[in-house]
Design a protein that fits this description.
single chain, 4-stranded antiparallel sheet, 112 residues, Lipocalin, mainly beta
Amino acid sequence: MVAQSAVPAARAVAVSNEVWVVTGSELVALDKERLQETARIHISGAPCSVAAEGDRVFVSGTSPLLTEASGTTHRVSRVITDTNSQCGDVHVGFSSIWVSVNEGDVVHRVPL
């Protein structure tokens, strides 16, 4: 083990310019070398999964479906809602954000 950081209620992690950890109500940014906390961003609803692309971070959740945060400003920059939001997974690829929904048999493709 090289480093560790205590992040209560950690659910998922993504790595880009920083280490991003989703908790029960927040997105926590950690310095990638020492894992020291650099920011906390409140996320509405129940966050489930996280993906990162450069300085953009994407959190899937129950409501809203998707929250985008800026790794530069450490603020929410976009929120996308859907009436069928349930915890799923989120990935970035092919110039899009891909969000699955565990209930409702739906996969969403959102432009970056």
